[in-house]
UniProtKB/TrEMBL annotation:
GO terms for molecular function: carbohydrate binding. It comes from the Bacteria. GO terms for cellular component: cell envelope. This is Ribose ABC transporter, periplasmic ribose-binding protein RbsB. SUPFAM superfamilies: Periplasmic binding protein-like I (SSF53822). Coiled coil: none annotated. Residues 54-311 form the Periplasmic binding protein domain. Keywords: Signal. It is found in: Cell envelope. Belongs to the bacterial solute-binding protein 2 family. It comes from Actinokineospora spheciospongiae.
Length: 348
C-alpha cells in the first residue's frame, strides 16, 4: 500500500481496463430460488444509476505513480454519466489535505476517495466523513481504524516482497549460487508499506535458505535512490542480487550502478514502470525483473465509491454489499512476459 510516494500510469490504461471488467460484472441479483447462495453475473451496474458526487484527494504528484493515481481516478469517473467528480488540489502538506477534504465534507459529497499523505494522521478526517454519513473509500495508505472508512483498496506490499524474494531465490538457486550476498534498497523505513515489503522479501528468501545482506532505505525518489545505491555499492564490493522497492527510485539506483561500473548481480524493481519494463525487454542492464504495484487501484476506488454511494454491490459476489477490503495482486514481470505488461506501464 503505497504509503508515501508512488508512481504514474500511461493515461489510465490499466485502470480503465481493470475497472471496466469490475463494472461489467456488478449487480444485486437475488439469491436463486430454493435458498441457494448464488448470484447471477450481470452488467447492470455499468448502466447509469442515481447521480452521485465523488470527492477525491491524493498527494501532489512528485513522481509518476502518484500522477497516474490522479489521472486514473479522473478518467474512470469520466466513464460514468451519473458521476460528478470533484477533486481537491493535491498537496504533500497534511494540514492542507485535511482542510481541502473538509470542504468536500461540508459540501456533503456522496462519497469520498482519499489517498492520504499519511494514513495515521488522516484517520480522524476519515472518521469525521464517516460520522457525517459520507462513505469513504480509503485508497492505498490505510487509516488506523476501520471506523474511518467504508472500504479499503490497495496493493499487496507483503506480496511485492514475496514476489521479489521468490524470483531472486529461484534465479540464484538455478545458478547454484551458495551463500549469496543479496542487497535491498527500501523506500521510507518508517512507513508500514516499506516494512511489509521488507518482511515479505526476507520471508521469501528464507524459504531458499538465504537472507538479506546490505540494506539501506531511500525516499522513493530518483535522487534518493542514486545516493543510497552509491553508498550501498561502495560498502558491498560483491553482490549477487539486489531488490529496489520502487521503479521511480530505480532510475537513480540504475544510474549509480552504471556509474560504479557494476554488473555482476541481477536486480529486481518494484511497481511496474514503463521505463523499467523497457530496460527489462532490452536486457542491457542489471535490471531483469520488476514486481507490480498498479495505480489501477485509483480507477477501482472510484468505481467502488460509485457503487457504494448508489447502494449497489458487485454482482459476481453473492453478498449484496461492496467488500470492506480489496487487495491487488503483485505480478512478476520478466523478459518472458514483459510484452504483455508494457502497454500498461506508467512513465516515471
Amino acid at each position: 500500500m503505497s504509503d508515501h510516494s508512488r508512481r504514474g500510469f500511461l493515461s489510465g490504461a490499466l485502470g480503465i481496463g481493470a475497472v471496466a471488467a469490475l463494472t461489467a460484472c456488478t449487480s444485486n441479483a437475488a439469491p436463486a430460488p430454493g435458498g441457494g447462495a448464488t448470484a447471477a453475473a450481470g452488467g447492470d451496474n455499468a448502466e447509469p444509476g442515481k447521480p452521485v458526487t465523488i470527492g477525491f484527494s491524493c498527494p501532489a504528484a512528485d513522481h509518476g505513480w502518484i500522477a497516474a493515481i490522479a489521472a486514473n481516478a479522473r478518467n474512470q469517473a469520466g466513464l460514468y454519466p451519473d458521476v460528478t467528480f470533484e477533486a481537491v488540489n493535491p498537496t504533500t502538506d497534511i494540514a492542507q489535505q485535511i482542510a481541502a477534504v473538509d470542504t468536500l465534507i461540508t459540501k456533503e459529497v456522496s462519497a469520498l476517495v482519499i489517498l492520504p499523505n499519511d494514513g495515521s494522521q488522516l484517520t480522524a478526517l476519515g472518521r469525521k466523513a464517516t460520522d457525517a454519513g459520507i462513505p469513504v473509500i480509503n485508497l492505498d495508505r490505510v487509516f488506523d481504524s476501520p471506523l474511518a472508512y467504508r472500504t479499503w483498496i490497495g496493493g499487496d506490499n507483503y506480496g511485492m516482497g514475496v514476489a521479489a524474494g521468490t524470483h531472486i531465490g529461484e534465479q540464484l538457486k538455478a545458478k547454484g549460487v551458495g551463500n549469496p550476498v543479496i542487497g535491498e534498497i527500501a523506500g521510507i523505513d518508517n512507513l508500514p508499506l516499506t516494512q511489509a515489503r521488507s518482511k515479505g522479501f526476507a520471508d521469501a528468501l528464507s524459504s531458499y535458505g538465504y537472507s538479506v545482506g546490505p540494506r539501506q532505505a531511500a525516499d522513493f525518489t530518483a535522487q534518493g535512490g542514486q545516493r543510497v545505491a552509491a553508498n550501498l555499492l561502495q560498502a558491498a564490493p560483491r553482490l549477487d542480487a539486489l531488490w529496489n522497492h520502487d521503479d521511480d527510485q530505480g532510475i537513480g539506483v540504475l544510474a549509480a550502478i552504471q556509474q560504479a561500473g557494476r554488473g555482476e548481480f541481477l536486480m529486481v524493481g518494484g511497481a511496474g514502470s514503463a521505463n523499467a519494463m523497457r530496460a527489462i525487454k532490452a536486457d542491457n542492464t542489471v535490471l531483469k525483473a520488476t514486481v507490480t504495484y498498479s495505480p489501477s487501484m485509483a480507477s477501482s476506488a472510484v468505481a467502488l465509491a460509485r457503487l457504494v454511494a448508489q447502494n449497489r454491490g458487485m454482482g459476481d459476489l453473492v453478498e449484496k454489499e461492496v467488500p470492506t477490503s480489496l487487495t491487488l495482486a503483485s505480478a512478476t514481470i520478466t523478459k518472458d512476459n514483459v510484452d504483455t505488461y508494457l502497454p500498461l506501464g506508467f512513465e516515471s
